[in-house]
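Before the break, one more example. Copy the sequence into your notebook; we will annotate it together after we see the structure.
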Amino acid sequence: MFRQLQHIDSAFRHIRAFSLFFLVACTVVSSLALYHSYRQVQAAQERIYILAGGKALAALSAGRRENIPVEARDHVRTFHEHFFTLDPDEKVIEANIGRALYLADGSARRAYDNLRESGYYSGLISANVSQEITVDSVQVDTDRYPYPFRCYARQRLIRASSVVTRSLITEGFLRSVSRSDNNPHGFLMERWVTIENRDLSSKSR
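Here is what the structure looks like once it is written out:
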């Protein structure tokens, strides 16, 4: 009788040990399954399909922080292209300047007001002068916030008789704001100033 009770007790301990082992194994397997499922869902959400020419092309999305240097440089480049690309047409000038002013604070507005009051834009229109800009490079320091930037560009003033090439260097700071149709990069240029704007060459046409 006593030996039979010992066998029952031993069997109960074995069953309890097996049950605990089975429970731990199930917990581990379930946790691994949940983890891998989460990773799969996350990977699927990062994959974007772009429809181009009737074909679906796969692309991978990236976080905001990873794209800050690229988006910041493009924001500065876009502002300068809008602000300095001008034709002898009042509506074109107003449209380009209007798009540029969405990307910057009051420092850009003051620069525009100063140029307008000095007769710069009316001079372009009356003399039929077109102005183009080529941004050579944009340097942005993303280790500090707001992000300091410096833009190096060349302007071309195209007149009926000549083409003048000028060097343009500006700098300022970039602050993060909400994205919108008028400001797709989600940055605002602040304290924008022109460091250099001088003639490099002049060619007759």
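The chain has two domains: 2-49, 64-204. Residues 74 and 185 are 8 Å apart (CA to CA). Try to locate both features in your own notes.
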